Protein: O-succinylhomoserine sulfhydrylase
Amino acid sequence: MENFETIAIRTQTERSAHKEHSAPIYLTSSYKFDDAEEMRALFANEKEGNVYSRYSNPNTSEFIEKMALLEGAEDGFATATGMAAIFTTFATFLKSGDHIVSSRSVFGSTHQLLTNIFAKWGVTFDYADLDKPEDWEALIKPNTKLIFVETPSNPGIDIIDLAFLADLAKKHNTLLVVDNCFATPYLQQPIKLGAHISIHSATKYIDGQGRALGGIILGSKVLISDVVAFARHSGPSLSPFNAWILSKSLETLAVRMDRHCENALKVAQYLENHPQIKLVKYPFLPSHPQYEIAKKQMKMGGGIVTIVVKGGIEGARKFMDGLKLFSISANLADTRSIATHPATSTHSKLTEEERNIVGIEQGSVRLSIGLEHIDDIIADIEQALK
Structure:
């Protein structure tokens, strides 16, 4: 199997004696061993198999195998949430005295990890701007262990050349970790572009229907073995039920992303010249500052359009309160279109100065464009902007 859609649909855990066509849910916390010797061998890692569902489970294993194949990774570890994936990665590879270079445009909770959680454990960081790649190398120190980046970023939709970062990481012997949540493996494959680890909040497009929380860390077998060694004892594991949902959801990821991207591009094009809109950011608009990079490393532009409504926070609130089809929610990547005001929700813990630096204005609204008919989506936006 070589094609994305076929891999996503046909990769499946081994069938049981019942010959089920669709993989069952393995709701078990533990497993039976044939004898004492098998138990010993499994715990000693001399034999592969399931020991305890905090370690592995047929459902999480199927999900990991699919995602690794789709990303071009060797292995992975599935976590309970996307933030658990980011925390687990940082905690695995960082120690007191280490340093991170991170894109300034990161999710609010990732910002909290860097500024509050890991800071008190002696890990320092510097932020770099995605639109100023020439500044990144000067921030790398002898103790820099990890380069972390979101591309496209949340919610600024900024982009950086991953091949450039991969070369930088190789030159300075650091890990390159990419949050690939907005792009999904269907649109972008960071590991094939030179990243060491790719992370997803599977809660978003991987599920795609607002049902299940989950995350995943993908990379080489050597790196993931370090992740597993940490995660087995710290316990951020994905539940078998959510793993089953996410694995089934991958079967429709390609067709969903095709429609998300098609709809989002049409919304971005419609809004670009709207008199009530100050700014539109979408990777596949020629007006996007990193349009050429986006075209080089992404298959399509994704399902997120970020806009700045004229009139500041009052203009944004008036627009959001006028929406009838769109849901007002902090989530994204749902089948249903969603509007979010980042400055007062997902990125509210940043100072106003920090938000302004990454392009989050009081009038900024993140639009997660869903799978509804495009005419209905645009009609709702149009009436809300009147």
